[in-house]
Every structure is written in C-alpha cells, then in structure tokens.
C-alpha cells in the first residue's frame, strides 16, 4: 500500500490499490482541486461515491500541504 493509502486508512478510508492509483494520478496530473464534473468522472472511474472521492481529495490535500510545510487548511496559502 502506498504512503498516502496508509494515511487514508487512518481517516477511515480503506481503498484498493487500483482506486488509490487512479486517485493519485488525478491528484498529481489533473488537479488537486477538481471541479464537480471532474470529481464525478473520477468517482465513476474509481467506483466510489462523489462524497467519498471529495473526502479523499480533502484528506490528500491536507497531507500534501503538511508535506510542503503549508498550513493544513486551504485558503491560507494558494496551492
């Protein structure tokens, strides 16, 4: 399991490796903050609900900001 996959498990999100791969790929190559239409497409591709997918992006963004030494909350610094 990837490092972000392990971290997501701490937040109660237990995802399969293929789901994490798709989510990570979208996070790094598409957008850290997908719009509603993109979020819907990512959710469908992963077999997750839009709510689960949005939660994953919120948690993943918090981990990214922490790794970058930024505040955990969005809005303090433009990322």
Short description:
The protein is mostly helical and 79 residues long.
Can you characterise this structure?
Helices cover 63% and strands 0% of the residues. The protein is built from four helices and no strands. The longest helix is centred in the C-terminal third of the chain and has 18 residues, at 50-67. The chain starts with a helix and ends in a 12-residue tail after the last helix. The chain is globular and about 30 Å long. The chain has helices at residues 3-10, 17-29, 36-46, 50-67. The model has no long low-confidence stretch (mean pLDDT 84). It has a domain at 15-65: Arc Repressor Mutant, subunit A. The protein is mainly α and 79 residues long. GO terms for molecular function: DNA binding.
DSSP E strands, number: 0
Shape: globular
* Poorly predicted runs: none
Indicate the percent of residues in helices: 55-70%
